[in-house]
Amino acid sequence: MSRRVRERWILLSNCQTLSLARGITAVAETVECDACDAWQMAERLAEDPDYFLRYDFMLVLANLRDFPGFPADRLPPHADVPCFSFTGYHPDCCYITAEGERITDGLIGPYHSMIALAGYKEQIGPAATARFFNDRIFEQAGYYRQWLAQRDQMIERFGKFGYDISGIFRKAGRGRSFMHTIDHPDIVLMTELAKIVLRRLDRPYREEAPMPVDALASMSWPVYPEVGEQLGVAGDYRFRPTDQYISLDLNEYLDEAFASFGRWDRSLLRVSWQVQPRLQHLRQLIRGAL
Amino acid sequence: MTTPYSGLLDHHFWRRSIASVEAHRIDPVVRTRFQIAPTDRIATAGSCFAQHIARRLQKIGDYYLVAEDGAHLPEAERAAGQYGLFSARYGNIYTAAQLWQLWREAYGEWTPEENAWPGRDGGWVDPFRPAVETFAEREAVIADRVAHLAAVRGMLESCDILVFTLGLTEAWRSLDDGAVYPLAPGVAGGAYDPARHGSVNYTAAEVEEDLGRFLAAAKQRNPGLRVILTVSPVPLAATFEDRSVLVSTTYSKAALRVAAEAMIRRHDWVDYFPSYEIITGSPAGGLYYGPDDREVNSLGVAHVMRLFERHYIDGDVVSTSAGITADATTDDAVICDEALIERWRG
Q1: Domain B37-112+142-343 has what CATH class?
Q2: What is the average pLDDT across A208-217?
Q3: What residues in chain B have their Cβ under 8 A from chain A's Cβ atoms?
Q4: Which of A1, A69, A172, B303 has its CA at a distance of 20 to 30 angstroms from the CA of residue B330?
């Protein structure tokens, strides 16, 4: 018997593209979904102006259409899908810039510890900074309030596009973290998201299907034990360098983080404006404890 | 069309309060009968799960009452002697019968015929707390018990709140005087003699009777007393009934739960805290047990105590801990005498 003919979809998105496309293909009854990273779009169109029009349907990262030169007239029928980001399991994880450029060559790629940065800025050294990874600091810095706030924010974000993801947290987060980092969901979450996308677009899907390979598993931030206790997740302080299988403990991580930060004057290291208040609060807590 | 359920709040309905809530956010505590004030002194007793409650209480404030603290001993010896493990050094009190017996002995209403057993590895132990300490001399067992019973009286009369965790319905007792032991003779001391020792598996009514007698007597001595009852979510380590230990566990926990329910219906100063439901309920799906599916892991304890604090503690609670626990594995610091049954079964 020949293979069933399926709709051909393409997903145009960010680093989550491959995982969501794989998830859709894995669970969909009638769809096969290819992936295209947003930064590949111009190149594909340059090679073949009808590249995307060869697909039956397209999913597009929600905010891409706001970019100048977005080729809406060269796309097939399409729908928007927002990006899933979530700091609830990793409230200490953040991006850091130096002179306006993201530091992407950290131990875990572009991800860094905000407490480590606060300790570096307060010039207390890695050993002293390690003492601030504790329940009291996490509570006072609002780390334990992140999960619920982020859940509600994601439900609202997806709800604006007609996707009801309210049940996804219970299913994908049962006793486990569904995020590798603050913006890298794992394949379990992405496969559940794929079902929601298919349901919203009235395409049949299977509840159970073989799990695709996780495209975002090459780097992960640990769920700290104190944070994990609040969320029913077993945590640890094991920092796994990108694409490696060894892991470093907190002291080893901090030694490397401080060495990395040391390339810049501390005044040049910044976090995004949204989390600036948290960094300042952490610095105050450290100063108050010294 | 209205039904008797029309207009009820979410907690009445499984779909609204359980099936739609993430596992770590399940909260079956609808209301408490009282609050714990900053000045309250809380005593703990019961099975090994009560130790978790005691340890967490010590971390969240000065609530925890220790009437037998071993202040005369170096700190290392205090821990080894189980000082502070509970509010007095009674070890695990698994059954309501044991609790009622302790009260009667403390107030001179009953005296056991056997007051010391040879230790398993030499020395002497107290039959009613054989895992607490091995004494060099028989007389030392008796002398320490006198001091212990005085501490029990002091605790019962000075505590504002007693948290008691019901653990088991199965026990061993003396056929001579009916003395109820926490562990079978021979497990941590003494020698099993079928002619002198027998097993018992209490009915819900018997648990209710013993618990009811204890509560009434304790309230009479300490009119301001309030009690929080919990049922231990830790399954039986062993059953003497000729059936699966799993089946005996469900019986035992059900009987204890029934007895606890009877007490809260009888007394408005007795409350029930659903730690058993939080840990064992299907929403948790076994998440809160260790690798042996018996010991409760730190995630489960954290969930229970998070809700305990949220619902009972007055005002803002600032944790004094510098990181409550480091992993989700079994908590080795909890002393479960019942596990000795398995160790010595050969």
Answers
A1: alpha beta
A2: 93
A3: 20-25, 285, 287-288, 297-299, 302-303, 306, 318-328
A4: A172
pLDDT in tens, B282-297: 999 999 999 999 999 9
Residue A206 pLDDT > 80: yes
C-beta atoms of A133 and B306 within 8 A: no
Contact yes or no for A136 and B303 at CB 8 A: no
| A-to-B residue pairs, Cβ atoms closer than 8 angstroms | 69
User: Domain spans of chain A?
Assistant: 93-145+221-289
* Rounded Cα gap, residues B285 and B289, in angstroms: 9
pLDDT in tens, B46-92: 988 888 888 888 887 788 999 998 888 888 888 888 888 889 999 99
Residues near A182 by beta carbon (within 8 Å), at least 6 away in sequence: A85, A86, A87, A90, A93, A94, A111, A221
Contacts of A232 in chain B (CB under 8 A): 23-24, 287-288, 299, 303
Which residues in chain A touch residue B319, judged by CB atoms under 8 angstroms apart? 135-136, 139
Give tens-digit pLDDT for B168-192: 999 999 999 999 999 999 999 999 9
Buried b / exposed e over B298-333, threshold 16 CB at 10 Å, is bbbbbbbbbbbbebbbeeeeebeeebbbeebebbee
Q: Which two tokens stand for residue B57?
A: 């209480």
Residue with tokens 């010391």: B116
Contact A136 B322 (CB under 8 A): yes
Q: What is the mean pLDDT of residues B311-334?
A: 45
Is the ipTM here above 0.95? no
Q: For the sheet with A78-81, list strands across it.
A: A31-37, A7-13, A57-61, A78-81
| The most confident of A32-41, A157-166, A211-220, by mean pLDDT | A157-166
> Model pTM?
0.87
**CB atoms B24 and A136 under 8 Å:** no
